């Protein structure tokens, strides 16, 4: 019995009515004129006290009785076949309780990068496990390797993959039938190739007809996730049931892998516990080999095993954002309208080709697009989803093209140029906020003979994170007034736990302090993985619904006991009130004490689908201000203004933290981060936190976050996630700011001092005619 | 085989401090420490060889004397975490690059992953557990909570310890001094600005 209602959707001063057909017993979203007591307030995280006192127990901190330690032996070769692994001597070493080989366990005897898993040992102490690892005898057939995009793409490069797999393989446009790395059906492929050729011709013609054409070749480097808590789990078998304290961003997914009939562990029952997770950023969706290995070592040993990666294993083997090589041509007319875009891009996600793509054809109205994208196999650790996979690298190229195009048509202001080619209703407003707060129009020293130059740059975000079906929540109201909300999903540092409780508190009309939470336990109701920034959008409507129906049950008890009309009752500020706002004289606790039973428990799933709503996407604009030392080439990001929206804001404080975090990772990507491979030995040289440079406190810019509250009407909480969108634009904004400051473009990130100096030098060489000072490239 | 390594303060300065990369990774199974000293007695400089087996390691942690049997090659970090189950101090890089394992040694910050436990004998060790408790937070910890100076929380104990040391040395640091004070602590989630705000807030309140 779907109920049709009319709601107001929009933001700022732009609201309009929208008719929504409520589904699956859902309740209407909060309305703009509705007073809210908890939602929208800046609330400290519920787990903050545990975290600042060191009492929060992460997976790494679990120490069940009898715990022993697992270690993984990794291949030292860039590319090898494992002929045999002999564990005999290792098993005889002191303290060793269990061991396995990767060829036997995973039926995979290729070690296609330096760092690939070969065998594993569990022993009483880490030192004993390390000693035993040195006693493992492995016979490798070492093969040639390629560890850089250029080496793999070169004529006559050694083959990285197996069988027929080519080093360079088209990933888009796709040919049907190409699955699991197999080559495409030749007929279908021929058709696609013909279509591509036609498309190329068409867009060639459009570019030829445009008033101006700009082109550039951009590169970005491999970024590792580097969560501070490494991957892995503490695994324990209790009466044939597996318990894993896992560092994961998908508790239910982790459980699924270890119980799956197709997996290696095949546990009949498995409970995954992840109360605290030390970061993930997209790399912790899978149990991974380390999760499987931990479970198997624990089974054989008969005692719990801690199988957490060491830092080197984390940096080499637990995922990364692939690098990219992007060649682009853009045609634009004098009126500022983009006519077309041609893109050829390559990415190296490891020895496979999944996740190679760079999102460099979105965000704006780009006219006709001809894009071909290739995956390039290298003998390196594989990519995993990394905070907005494909977007920051695509944005680095696209946003610089936008500036170059704007400049090419008589130096149109980059912000005005974007507005001309952007139809996002929210972003239109956000540009102005960013412009003002970064001081866009302030006079600056740019290029030329000054030692320190300053510049500003702009770039946009786009994301799609209203969540969807797949979450239930359990709300329990006890007779003594204690309220608990539970969901089995994890909080990887985003603030999910707190937001879930805030939504329940709002619905129950009680202060947040009265709500306790349980999260990160697969014995509790189903929750989403923390992916695509959808956790909050998926989870909170379930939390609100469960709280709503629990409230109804409680009010029914009150009505019955007091002889009142349940439809006239509500809860607000921990009181039972009537619809006209008058107090009944009963507090929330009084109401609870009227129950016959010990507690009311309501388990509710959220509707499977979202409503049409105001906007399907988050927007967002970022502006960066940099200072560049023209003599040393050092770039300092002084300030980043990040204007962000994420539907209805539940907790502006944690939302702001999410944005700041994304910006910081983005600045780090722009200036510092890169995996360095030894081309000869095939190994990662900076598999640590010393030489893999991550932005620190000293270089951290001032970050000015402006949050735009949007009533998007897509669900009963109207929330969108904010983990990924803020990282999309940052590096691009920084790159544009650097070009603005020094008067020449650096086409590659990280923007290291060397690259800056090279760009300045090449600019000086080519400066036959003096350039307009402050001209934006 | 268990020799008692005493906790004499004089002994400490003569010991080798295993610096930088890989105190934990190095296969140190034998350590040289100065001979047993008694208060007020003349001491011989001849080293006593202990290990590779476990020895008794007596440390003063958060004001309490704690003694445990462990190999002399055990880092202070591992001793805290594995032998005393004090898991607030985190292991992240295990080689002195990230600050997650920061503890105070006589009030000064050290990376506990990069020193041996036996080198901390006779000194005052303060871990995050000794700074404030959930029921009794320090002003700095309260400010961390209020300013949301944490996300996943994995770097947080190290940050709290570093900032505590900073405020002890300089109760009114400016922004740059705060940045320097946590320069050795990496936060991957990106909480630096919130931490700076939290330290300023605590400093304004005159607290630690
Ligand atoms: S774990 Fe000690 S500095 Fe990183
Ligand atoms: S809060 Fe996650 S690393 Fe700092």
Description:
The complex is a heterodimer of chains A (777) and B (208). With 777 residues, chain A is an alpha+beta fold. Among the domains of chain A are: 67-143, Alpha-Beta Complex (Aldehyde Oxidoreductase, domain 3), CATH 3.90.1170.50; 424-465 and 614-768, Aldehyde oxidase/xanthine dehydrogenase, molybdopterin binding domain (Aldehyde Oxidoreductase, domain 4, 2-Layer Sandwich), CATH 3.30.365.10. Helices cover 28% and strands 25% of the residues of chain A. Chain A has a 7-stranded mixed sheet with strand order 5-7-3-15-12-13-14, sandwiched between helices. The longest helix of chain A has 28 residues, at 535-562. The radius of gyration of chain A is 28 Å and the shape is globular. The model of chain A is unreliable at 768-777 (pLDDT under 50). Chain B is α/β, with parallel strands linked by helices and 208 residues long. Chain B has 2 domains: 5-130, Ubiquitin-like (UB roll); 139-204, Orthogonal Bundle (DNA polymerase, domain 1), CATH 1.10.150.120. Chain B has 6 helices and 8 strands; from the N terminus they run βαββββαβββαααα. Chain B has helices spanning 9-14, 76-83, 139-146, 156-169, 175-181, 192-204, and strands at residues 4-5, 31-34, 47-50, 55-61, 64-70, 102-105, 108-111, 124-126. In chain B, strands 1, 4, 5, 6, 7 and 8 form a 6-stranded mixed sheet that branches. In chain B, helix 3 (139-146) packs across helix 6 (192-204). The N and C termini of chain B lie far apart (44 Å). Chains A and B meet through helix 1, helix 4 and helix 16 of A and helix 2, helix 3, helix 4, helix 5 and helix 6 of B. The complex binds FE2/S2 (inorganic) cluster (2 copies). One FE2/S2 (inorganic) cluster sits between chains B (150-156, 187-189, 191) and A (228, 279, 493).
């Amino acid at each position: 019995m779907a109920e049709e209602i009319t709601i107001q959707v929009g933001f700022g001063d732009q609201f309009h009515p929208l008719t929504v057909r409520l589904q699956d017993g859902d309740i209407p979203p909060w309305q703009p004129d509705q007073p809210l007591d908890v939602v929208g307030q800046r609330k400290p995280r519920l787990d903050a006290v545990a975290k600042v006192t060191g009492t929060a127990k992460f997976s790494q901190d679990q120490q069940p009785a009898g715990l022993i330690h697992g270690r993984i032996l990794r291949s030292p070769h860039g590319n090898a076949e494992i002929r045999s692994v002999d564990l005999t001597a290792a098993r005889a070493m002191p303290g060793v309780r269990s061991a396995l080989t990767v060829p036997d366990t995973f039926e995979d005897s290729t070690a296609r990068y330096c760092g690939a898993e070969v065998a594993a040992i569990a022993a009483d102490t880490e030192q004993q496990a390390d000693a035993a690892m040195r006693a493992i005898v492995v016979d490798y057939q070492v093969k040639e390797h390629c560890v850089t995009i250029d080496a793999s793409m070169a004529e006559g490069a050694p083959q990285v993959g197996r069988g027929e797999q080519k080093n360079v393989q088209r990933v888009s446009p796709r040919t049907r039938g190409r699955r699991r790395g197999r080559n495409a059906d030749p007929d279908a492929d021929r058709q696609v190739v013909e279509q591509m050729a036609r498309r190329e011709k068409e867009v060639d013609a459009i570019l030829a007809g445009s008033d101006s054409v700009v082109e550039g070749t951009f590169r970005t480097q491999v970024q590792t996730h580097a969560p501070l808590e490494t991957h892995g789990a503490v695994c324990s078998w209790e009466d044939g049931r597996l318990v894993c304290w896992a560092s994961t961003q998908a508790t239910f997914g982790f459980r699924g892998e270890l119980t799956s009939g197709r997996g290696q562990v095949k546990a009949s029952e498995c409970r995954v516990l992840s109360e605290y997770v030390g970061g993930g950023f997209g790399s912790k969706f899978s149990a991974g080999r380390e999760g499987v290995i931990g479970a198997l070592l624990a089974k054989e040993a008969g005692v719990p095993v801690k199988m957490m990666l060491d830092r080197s294993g984390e940096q080499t083997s637990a995922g990364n954002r692939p690098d990219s090589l992007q060649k682009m041509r853009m045609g634009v007319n004098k009126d500022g309208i983009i006519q077309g875009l041609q893109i050829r891009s390559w990415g190296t996600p490891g020895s496979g080709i999944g996740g190679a793509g760079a999102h460099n054809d979105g965000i704006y109205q780009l006219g006709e697009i001809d894009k071909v994208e290739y995956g390039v196999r290298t003998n390196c650790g594989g990519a995993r989803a990394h905070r907005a996979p494909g977007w920051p690298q695509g944005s680095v190229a696209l946003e610089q093209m936008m500036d170059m195009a704007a400049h090419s048509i008589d130096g149109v202001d980059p912000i005005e140029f974007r507005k001309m080619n952007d139809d996002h209703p929210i972003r239109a407003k956000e540009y102005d906020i960013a412009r003002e707060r970064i001081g866009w129009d302030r006079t600056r020293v740019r290029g030329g003979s000054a030692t320190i130059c300053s510049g500003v740059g702009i770039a946009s975000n786009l994301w799609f994170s209203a969540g969807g079906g797949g979450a239930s929540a359990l709300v329990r109201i006890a007779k003594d007034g204690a309220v608990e909300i539970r969901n089995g999903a994890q909080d990887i540092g985003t603030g999910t736990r707190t937001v879930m409780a805030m939504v329940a508190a709002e619905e129950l009309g009680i202060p947040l302090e009265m709500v306790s939470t349980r999260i990160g336990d697969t014995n509790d109701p189903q929750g989403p993985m923390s992916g695509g920034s959808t956790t909050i959008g998926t989870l909170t409507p379930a939390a609100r619904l469960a709280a709503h129906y629990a409230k109804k049950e409680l009010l029914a008890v009150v009505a019955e006991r007091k002889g009142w009309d349940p439809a006239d009752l509500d809860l607000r500020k921990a009181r039972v009130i009537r619809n006209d706002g008058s107090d009944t004289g009963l507090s929330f606790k009084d109401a609870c004490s009227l129950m016959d039973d010990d507690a009311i428990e309501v388990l509710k799933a959220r509707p499977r689908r979202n409503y049409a709503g105001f906007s399907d996407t988050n927007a967002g604009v970022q502006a960066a201000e940099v200072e560049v030392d023209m003599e040393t080439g050092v770039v300092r990001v002084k300030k980043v203004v990040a204007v962000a929206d994420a539907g209805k804001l539940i907790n502006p404080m944690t939302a702001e933290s999410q944005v700041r975090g994304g910006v910081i990772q983005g600045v780090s990507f722009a200036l510092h981060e890169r995996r360095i491979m030894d081309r000869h030995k095939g190994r990662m040289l900076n598999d640590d936190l010393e030489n893999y440079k991550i932005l620190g406190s000293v270089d951290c810019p001032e970050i000015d976050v402006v949050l735009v509250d949007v009533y998007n009407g897509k669900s009963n909480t109207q929330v969108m996630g904010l983990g990924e969108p803020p990282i999309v634009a940052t590096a691009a904004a920084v790159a544009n700011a650097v070009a603005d400051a020094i008067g020449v473009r650096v086409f590659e990130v990280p923007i290291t001092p060397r690259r800056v100096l090279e760009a300045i030098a090449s600019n000086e060489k080519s400066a036959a005619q003096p350039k307009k000072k402050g001209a934006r490239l | 085989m268990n020799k008692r390594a005493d906790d004499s303060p004089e002994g400490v300065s003569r010991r080798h401090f295993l610096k930088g990369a890989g105190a934990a990774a190095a296969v140190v199974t034998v350590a040289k420490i100065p001979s047993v000293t008694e208060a007020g007695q003349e001491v011989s400089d001849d080293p006593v060889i202990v290990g590779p087996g476990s020895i008794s390691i007596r440390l003063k942690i958060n004001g309490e004397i704690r003694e445990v049997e462990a190999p002399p090659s055990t880092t202070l970090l591992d001793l805290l975490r594995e032998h005393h189950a004090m898991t607030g101090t985190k292991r992240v890089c295990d080689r002195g690059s990230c600050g997650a394992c920061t503890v105070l040694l006589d009030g000064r910050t050290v990376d506990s992953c990069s020193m041996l436990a036996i080198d901390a004998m006779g000194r005052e060790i303060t871990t995050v557990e000794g700074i404030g408790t959930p029921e009794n937070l320090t002003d700095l910890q309260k400010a961390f909570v209020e300013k949301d100076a944490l996300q996943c929380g994995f770097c947080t104990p190290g940050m709290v310890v570093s900032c505590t040391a900073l405020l002890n040395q300089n109760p009114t640091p400016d922004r740059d001094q705060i940045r320097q004070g946590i320069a050795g602590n990496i936060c991957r989630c990106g909480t630096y600005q919130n931490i700076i705000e939290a330290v300023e807030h605590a400093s304004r309140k005159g607290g630690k």
